[in-house]
Amino acid sequence: MLSLVKSLTRNQKRNVLLILDLCLVPLALVFTFAVQADPRTPLETLSLLLPVLPYLLAVAAGVAIALGIPQIQLNAYEGRALAKTAVFAAYLGASLAGLGWLFQLSIPIGNSIVFAICFFMFSAVSRVVMYQVVVAIYRREIPRCRVLIYGAGTTGTQLATALRTHEGIDPVAFVDDNTALQGVLIAGLPVYTPASIARIVQEKSIRRVLLAIPSLSQPKQAQIARRLQKMGLEVQTLPSFAQLIGEEPLVEKLTPVKPAQFLGRAPVVTSLGDEGNSYSGRTVLISGAGGSIGAELSRQVLACRPKKLILYELSEYALFNIDMELRPMAEESGVELVSVLGSVADARQVRLVLDEYHVQIVVHAAAYKHVSLVEANPLSGLSNNVLGTQTLAREAESAGVERFVLVSSDKAVRPSSVMGASKRLAELVVQDLAIRTTGTVFSIVRFGNVLGSSGSVVPIFQEQISRGGPVTVTHKDVRRYFMTVREAVHLVLRAGAMASGGEVFVLDMGEEVSIERLARQVIESSGYTVRDENNPDGDIEISFIGLRQGEKLREELTLSKDRLTTAHPKIFAAREQALSEIEVASALRSLREAISGGDKAAAFAVLDRWIEGRDQQNAATLHGGN
């Protein structure tokens, strides 16, 4: 039957409706005379009107077409369509009276009025019936999605009413936390408790749940959605009708709070001043230019108007993004922007790039920095962070590069992680080259965590909040140093410009920040409350998951307490011992052999032997875990 309905063309459907109206004309006449006090039967009376019936049908066809009655779709038969049908019926009543006069038939005027009313009723009712028949055909033959509405308030009730006429959705029931609503019928549907969802879903073959609780906070909605999705249900969220028509904001939190607001102090960023001249008119290469630090380095160096800015990056996607961002500004400033896709561990490519573009300054920010990932992939992390640094630094020296700045991390100090150990060994490589060379000024800049960088805690917290929590913190006592990416990069460039060779610069990171306190700040700044023992009805819970392998409760910035002041109040120089040339060569040779042989234990042995302050107990744990 559905295929027959769908096979009808638009003209065929119009003809069906026109024929229906023409068939209703004699039916309305019969009914008109049936309600009259007349000794003759209705059919006898109709037989007397046979001479005028063809003319009346012709008038009906002409008026219907003129008014566009057959063109009105069944699902659009409402106010204006009823008005047209009333006009149509009035024309027919007047036509019956006129034809009766022409053919000298005794048709009282009252009969013509009753005929018009009867035809109007029959025509309107027939269309309503036809529409319901067509809907029933569609509903019977088209698969329907049975849905459960979570929330029996105003929004849920309006939703249930709206879905009753939907072709493919069948609302089955409500669930609501309000005990006053449970057990009653709302909009013809029963209201159940959320605890009975699993039973209702199974009994009523429900596949989808519609969340109609816009007044509930987004985290709590996300928590409900996750619980329902674990049952194998599809979950969709509906905003309130007030939000849809613009009386209330559709999205409560359009943008997350900027990470810099959690610094706890004013960011220290001033003009580069005279140090900016060190980059102006020069050819500068930024390795890892697509990362958080590398991208900001590229922006700030570009602002100094170098002659050429070379973006060196392993990730095609990251390189594409930073190139798209900086190219218009580079063209406007007259700076030649070069994007190079490659690895710093590729000696041949590094050599070609340094020679072809006559690079004068290298800022080395390329590194694998995520502790847990490097911990799980130690050989890859060591190869990139240590051997990559050694390759780039050695080729920079051979190419006559004027300055080489290594961007390091506070995790390099007495490292418990492979990532931190790899950064410390990279520092030792650069320190060795700084001692042995006079042509290139080698320096190291070490700092702590950067707020807002990829993989840093604030974006992770914000993402967890958007999913309804919990916000995960490794340990209640974990504390970290923080800087904004802008001020960290600013100080890196200043330190690199003031270096004379071999310095390990340490940035003043301010006071340590409690990660638990930071998590609370991020939750509260998003407009939510923390759910804990003191506030069991809060929105977001903070969950302590334990320190990951290689993580420490607190980080340090120097191996010793001796820090020398510099010309900048936020930049210090650390006094730290370096390895000899023979020791560095031995460490690198052993590390290369371990990596080429895929021997993790041998690689860890290199770290344990040459890195000062490395936790032997933690090293043993790493051996067992890898």
List the topology elements.
Layout: H1 2-7, H2 10-34, H3 42-48, H4 53-67, H5 79-102, H6 109-141, E1 145-150, H7 154-163, E2 169-175, E3 185-186, E4 189-192, H8 197-204, E5 208-211, H9 218-229, E6 234-237, H10 241-244, E7 283-287, H11 292-303, E8 308-313, H12 316-333, E9 336-341, H13 347-357, E10 361-364, H14 371-376, H15 378-398, E11 403-409, H16 418-436, E12 441-447, E13 449-451, H17 457-466, E14 471-473, E15 479-480, E16 482-484, H18 485-498, E17 504-507, E18 513-514, H19 515-525, E19 530-531, E20 540-544, E21 563-565, E22 571-574, H20 581-596, H21 600-610, H22 616-625
Parallel strand pairs: 1-2, 1-5, 2-4, 5-6, 7-8, 7-10, 8-9, 10-11, 11-12, 12-17, 13-16, 14-20, 19-20
Antiparallel strand pairs: 3-4, 15-18, 17-22, 21-22
Helix pairs in contact: 2-3, 2-4, 2-6, 4-5, 5-6, 11-12, 11-18, 13-15, 15-16, 15-20, 17-19, 20-21, 21-22
Keywords for this entry:
disordered C terminus, alpha/beta, 22 strands, nine-stranded mixed β-sheet, about 625 residues
Integer-rounded radius of gyration: 40 Å
Task: Return the structural class.
Answer: alpha/beta
Shape: elongated
The biggest beta sheet is recorded as: 9 strands, mixed
Average pLDDT, rounded to a whole number, is 81
- Straight-line N-to-C gap: 66 Å
Helix share of residues?
Answer: 40-55%
Taking strands numbered 1, 2, ... along the chain, how are they ordered across the largest sheet? 9-8-7-10-11-12-17-22-21
Please report the number of helical segments. 22
For the secondary structure, the number of strands is 22
Instruction: Report the sheet-strand fraction.
Output: 5-15%
Low-confidence stretches: 243-257, 619-626
